[in-house]
Protein 1
Amino acid sequence: MIDDDKAAGDAGGSTHHLAPLQLELPFAAERRRPYRVLIDDLFHFGNIERMEEERYEFGAFDTPAEALAACEFVVNRCLQWLYVQKPGISAGELLEHYLGFGDDPFVRADRDHERVDFSARDYAETRVKIIAGQASELQSQVLDLDEAVVRIAGRLRAPRA
């Protein structure tokens, strides 16, 4: 806490001045990044007006590679979230849920920059197989561990001769 009298120079003959607040806001003067990742909600697919109302910007990027990586991140995050809601579903069911309720990222480039194509559907089709496959492998490992724990617990409870 600052003593107002000292700050004003009324006490002790010394003057204490507060430095003016200087904020450097890097984003205020930042140049416009040419690649924007926008997200539509697939729940509204087919209703263009509603999709555009619900559309939001995920971020802006300097290069096509950064924008594509952002799109992949969005799809992966969405697929993982959907899988957690219904663990154990097949890759086909996961894709169906994604196409009905998922996020649909795309890249919009400034006029003077190269166009960037990204198909969230195509990317999701490859990712659901991996996510569902990894999950079923992990579930199998968990079941194997559960069986091992049961066997060990049974041995621990068995009376010794």
Protein 2
Amino acid sequence: MAKTSTAKRSIAEKETSRPARKRGRRPDKVLGALRASLLKLLQNENFDEITVRDIILESGVSPATFYRHYRSKAALLEAVADQEVETIVKMSSSFHASAREASLAQIQYFHENRSLWSVLINGGAASYVRAGLIERLSPRYSTERWRSETWVPNDLAVRFSVSATVEIISWWLQQEEPYSLETIAEMLEGLTVYPTLAENAPRKYSSS
């Protein structure tokens, strides 16, 4: 009986002393690797020309890992779009504090990620990105403070600003003659923020 107990302890000790099996990459790390690869490929190719195999080879992620998280390159693009939208939303949250600084920060970000945003805005993903921005911005700007700063209904102000932003960025990314980042930031601020502010309302809507 003692020998049996000793043997069981020995087996248990061997089991606990074994190194833990390596787990698969975390989803955020997989997305990070695939996003970086997609960005690199977009520097030289159009999105339609890039294959899942290209992305897999560039990233070093296995086919099994890719398809465990994404069913296609379009699904990967949606995941990247979600991540990008969240970044822009965070920048937009400072609009009411400093519209000029927030606009310039956004434009600089778009410029640094120009290849990706050209795909997101002009490659058929614009409606998805726009819907994502509206969905995420609406709760942030539903406060009494935001409503008091606009002369139009809150949801209309958000939709107008988001739609105008998408159109401005879409237009800018298609221009052959580059405009300075400061100029585009001024356009963004002047066309998406100021028109909805209470101080700029037509006289009949102004508070007395």
Protein 3
Amino acid sequence: MEKVKIPLVSFCITTYNHEQYIEDCLLAAIKQDYTGEMEIVISDDCSTDKTWDKIQNIIEEFPNINIIANRNKTNLGIAKNTEKLWSLSRGEIIVTQDSDDISLPNRVSTLVNYYESYPDVVLIDSGYNFIVDNNFYQGKIFEGVQIFDIDRFFSKKRMETDGYRSYRRNVITSYKQFFASTPTADSTTLLRGILIGKIMRIPDLLANYRLHPNQVSNANNIKKINRSLIAKQYRADVFHAIKQHYFSRKYIFKVLVFVYRYSLIASLNQSEIYIRYIKPLIKHIK
């Protein structure tokens, strides 16, 4: 009987100035109940507090745990720091974690079971609870298992990026590097995933998501993100996917309309977007 291959998982953590949270985050990664091989990869984006010292303390406390730790010499920003994680990781499945949040012990094992059951799914978002001042509240719950192919995904009016994320390695290796100016790796990775395969949302609550004023996803901080830089990355990734024939040509128009609507021209209707932006490009797509 052929032995079932258990995938190597990379539990990837980005961190910056989270000295008050990093220990809980790392301990949650260490306590995963996954019985296969797992590496914990963490990249500190040149923190100015004691985050790096606390990472080193955890590594010394758990010498038998495979923890790969990197400290950037300069602050790279979220997207480039995420790419640094990717370059240090080896896993077939990437499980991402922000350093102010906590994964539940069954997170990795649950995700691997889904990936094994759905081989055409390349990215999975799961539900989560909220942490507010160390109190726990029910958070995001998806209704049942939801699978999106490119047609269903781009039929929605907007790209929903909610959920705690994981993905297969080909979501990384199928694309070029992020632009240095790209401000996020969250929605950009989601877009990359749907262009090469199916994505899934599962009802399982697998993480505790911390709400605090300094978090990147705080409403006030999100407003400061330059949407045009995200749109620039979207366009580059879409054109790369088109050239590499990652998806059927029949979806090109739908995908491009979606991307250009995001590009700060949401007020335009579909016909105007096509005439102004898409029609001049179509002839260059072979």
